[in-house]
Structures are given as structure tokens and as C-alpha cells.
Amino acid sequence: MIVCRSSAEIEKLRRVNQLVARILAELRAMVRPGVTTQEIDAAAESLVRAAGAEPAFKGYHGYPATVCASVNEQVVHGIPSTRKLAEGDVLSLDMGAKLGGYFGDSAVTVAVGSVSADARQLLKVTEEALFRGIDAVKPGARVSDIGAAVQAHVEAHGYSVVREFVGHGIGTELHEEPQIANYGPGGRGPRLSEGMVLAIEPMVNVGGPETRILGDHWTAVTKDGSLSAHFEHTVVVASGGCEILTLLAGDAARDAELENAART
Ligand code: MF3
Ligand code: CO
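# cobalt (II) ion complex -> structure
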């Protein structure tokens, strides 16, 4: 069953998802050569707790950290470590939080210092693919319309969509129904209705779509070692379309932009 949330619940989901968006913007501003992914994770956990929220991933099936930090050929679920980021890396940061009983979830992939034109193009196409998927969300559309839109955009640019990991419903649990594949034909699966809350999260590889899991039992990497990117937003289906709950609203967005601009 896919739950449709009441407006009171949506307000709580807005709060936690805006918190996630604000913290991700702060983490992004920490990304530079020499920083370790553990330092970013520690900052994430203190920011989450300072807001009276809890990390959503820490302890989830034994996951040990607040963020997933996946570098270069790592697709998702990279465990923060003492690895120092290097100029030219791409880092995907995925973070979830729980506040007042409701979950938020979002991810971005960012360039560390200046990166190759190929890496920049991968990030651009993956984020665009997320927005193509989001554009497919409206009452009456079908769940698989999202993945069909994502896949069409990704493959038009010669990249491939990861199959093994999917987006998901989200609300009072981190992962709820439905599963949202990032590929496949449209026009299938349940119809979307107002109040459904979805975390849409395409993972895109420069090379082939296949992944494997490292010996730490978490980190997913591309089988061919090619670069990979991941972007995620949590959205609520609304009249005529959807509202992106993890898009920074108002002043916070300006502040984050200014911080980013100040660094470059
Ligand atoms: N955004 C990812 C997801 O929804 C991150 C989960 S990491 C985990 O699956 F540790 F919580 F599994
Ligand atoms: Co997610």
C-alpha cells in the first residue's frame, strides 16, 4: 500500500526535508581537496542532532554513519573514512534524517576542486535526469513513468542507469512502498495520487550499468571502474504535479549559493 499523507503530515515532512536540504548545502560547502569524508560525516551528525533530529541511516541494517560518501567509481553507500578527497574527485553525499516521527532523504554529487569536462557532464546529466523523473510526477501518472523519463535522458547522453538500487516511498519509515526503478517502460505500476511522498534517486554510470559490493558489505562500485553519480530529492505529489520537499527555500538557498561562490 502506498500511503497518502495528510496536510499536517506533509508539513512535518516539509520540515525534516528542508532540514536535510539545509545540512546538505552546508556539507557541500565543506567539500575541498584534503578534507576526509569522516570529517564531513561528523559535521553532518552534529548538525542533525543540533536541530533536534536523528540520523536516518546510522544503525539502519547496521550502517555505521550519518551520510553515505561515495567517491568516483563508488555508486552509493560509501562509508565515510579517513580518505582525503583529492582535486578532480567527484563525491556523492547522501543524507537522511528523522524529525518528529518523519523522514527526509536527499543526495547530491559534487566536484572536488576542478574536475574533468567528462565528470562535469556526468553530474549535469544525472541531475537533469532526476528532474526529468520529477517532471513525470503528477496525480494519475504511473510509478514507472518516473524511471522511463530518467532512463531516456541518461541513455540519450550515452550513459547507463544502475539497476540494483531504486528510489522509494518515504514517510514514517525511511523506505516505504513503492519501489521506484530508474529504468523500464512507462505506463506500468500504481497510479500516483496527491499526498504520496517519493524519494527519487537516479544513479548513473559513465560505463556499463553493472555494480558490485566491496568487502565492507556496503560500498557499491561500478564493475568496470567507471565514474558514477547520484542525485536524490524527496517530493510530494500535489495538484497538477509535485512539490520538491528537499529543494532549499528562500534565504537558505541564497546563503548556500553565496557560500559556494565564496569558495571559488
Ligand atoms: N538514500 C539511500 C536510500 O534511500 C541511502 C540509504 S543508506 C542506508 O537507500 F544506510 F540507510 F542504507
Ligand atoms: Co533514498
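# post-check
The mean pLDDT is 95.
Residues 167 and 200 are 5 Å apart (CA to CA).
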